[in-house]
Amino acid sequence: MTKVFPATAGGEVVHALGPIDIEIKRGEFFAVVGPSGCGKSTLLELIAGLTDPTEGEIEFEGRAIQKSVPDGVGVVFQEDACFPWLNVRENVEFGLRQKNTDAAQKTRRALAVIDMMGLHDFARSYPAQLSGGMRQRVCIARTIVAEPRLILLDEPFGALDQQTRLLMGDEMLRLWRQISSTVFLITHALDEAVMLSDRIMVMSARPGKVIDLVETGWPRERDSRIVERENFGALTSRLWKTLREESLKTMGRVVSGV
Amino acid sequence: MSRLRLYQISVVTAFVLLLEALCLAGVIDKVTMPPPHIILGDLARMVLARRYFAEIGKSLANVLLAFTSAYLIGVVAGTILHGNKRVREILDPLFATYYAIPVFAFYPLFIVIFGLGDGPQVLIGFMLAIVAVIVTTLNGLDRVPSVLKKTARVNGLNALQTTRYITLPFCAPYLLTAAKLALAYAFIGVIGSEFIMARSGMGYEISYAYTNFDNATMYPLILLILLLSIAANSLLSRWERILLARRGQN
Question: How many CA atoms lie within 13 A of A129 on its CB side?
Fold first, then answer.
């Protein structure tokens, strides 16, 4: 599919994305990397049904996605999306508001996920009392409590420091195995993509197209120690080799545009 | 009690004590103003004898009416305007210059149209309050992060549910600020109008006592208005502080 944004006042039509044709397998951990402004987030919003493609079609479980977020899809954004007026438990319960379960059941499920995310002692805390990493865990908890079959992550660790990112990566892998959902991760960190994913899609500069598709071949049981493997460096440098040219292209464009 | 609060109370106490001293020393003569302890005694007697209760009740009812109508209509109008960019752009200059207009100038006109009853007083209070509510509501709505709106869509909320469960709760501190402003403006509008021209009410009684050199009525009523207005405002401020503290802002 393709995404073109109509011209705004005084601007030009922006061809953001595509054509792109990809298929994500059920249960896989799929990552997307690309130079900034290549349309990664647009791609995620298209899959989430938050925006419609200009041309082509996107399907989730065989059904076309149109104008609304399909049932069974959860999204975690890069920005802090916790509700500051609700405590952690209420935030997580919000993820269940569409489900037809009674209040007691919702609380039980929310508390179970809060435990799973290591937030047990903070169920009654408000987001303002938590660190950035913990708030992002609350958002992840709010998403997975509804047991989505596809989790879309838009640079969820982008605002966190390196150590927290690695630990959150471990947690994400553990969760992915535990709830056996499909994960679609957008990241700008190449090592993060290689460490977490089964497959990595490399996108070109705008309009974003697929320029490489890398299989990592990691076992399902893995954690951040995978970086010690010999192959890790090779995979990361392969990504960088492809991306370097693309990133230079974008930068070159900026320079010549000045 | 915090040290800061102690200082704040000390400033007010010192001011009252200064007034007391100046009155007792004769620097401020008795006809101008009785000493604060006499005013307080007069107020206590007035309240115990239930004097002016009907007038006080009438004024407060009008303040409440002006406040409630301005607040409800203001919040709804602000919410609708926020979703209607064009109309908002057209009205923006009006909002920007609104408080340069002396609304009280219209009071005689309102009396001509509605008669010398409660109507014109409530209307003045309403007119003073409503734009502050609209502007504060718009200000709050402008600050709702787009990621929260996206979260609403991901969770399958429709427009009305998004307003109910995301937008309004996010704006709660702004809506409380709007309430504080609306209440202050409603007080000013109603009491002020009664002062200028009316047949009853607290403002009218103060002005009546003033023309009759009746300090034993005028000062206790002024003090009562002060106390009522401050009490209502602190109640809303306390609530606002709780909400803000929860969000880590002070």
Answer: 13
CATH of the domain at B105: 1.10.3720.10
**How far is A139 from chain B, CA to nearest CA, in Å?**
10
Question: Is there a contact between B154 and A74 if contact means CB atoms under 8 Å apart?
Answer: yes
Residue B79 lies in domain: 51-246
B229 falls within a domain: yes
* B58 within a domain of the structure (yes/no): yes
Please indicate, yes or no, whether the overall pTM of this predicted structure exceeds 0.80. Answer: no
Strand-strand pairing, A63-64 and A59-60: antiparallel
Q: Which of B154, B169, B248 faces A75 most closely, judged by CB atoms? A: B154
| Predicted local distance difference test score (pLDDT) of residue A166 | 81
Query: Of A74, A75, A129, which has the smallest distance from its Cβ to B248's Cβ?
Result: A129
Instruction: For residue A157, name the pLDDT band (cuts at 50, 70, 90).
Output: confident
Distance CA B15, CA A56 (A): 75
Tell whether B143 is covered by a domain: yes
Type of residue found at A62: G
Q: How many domains does chain B have?
A: 1
Binary contact (A126, B248; C-beta < 8 A): yes
Label each residue of B153-191 as H, E or C: HHCCCCHHHHHHHHHHHHHHHHHHHHHHHHHHHHHHHHH
Tokens 């709780």 belong to B242
Q: Which residues of B touch A86 (CB under 8 A)?
A: 169
Give pLDDT, residue B157. 85
Q: A85 and B243: CB-CB below 8 Å?
A: yes
- Residue B155 to residue A95, Cβ atoms within 8 A: yes
Taking only the tens place, the pLDDT of each residue in A158-193 is: 777 777 778 888 888 888 888 888 999 998 888 888
State the virtual CA torsion across A231, A233, A238, A243 in degrees, nearest 10.
150
Q: What's the rounded mean pLDDT across residues B74-92?
A: 92
* pLDDT tens by residue, B18-52: 999 999 998 998 888 999 999 999 999 999 998 88
pLDDT of res. B137: 94
**Nearest CA distance, A5 vs chain B (angstrom):** 18
| Structure confidence at residue B189 (pLDDT) | 93
Q: Which of B154, B170, B172 sits opposite A69 (nearest CB)?
A: B154
Cβ contacts of B114 within 8 Å, gap of 6 or more:
B120, B123
End-to-end Cα, chain A, rounded Å: 32
The pair of structure tokens assigned to B135 is: 């502007």
How high is the pLDDT of residue A257? 46
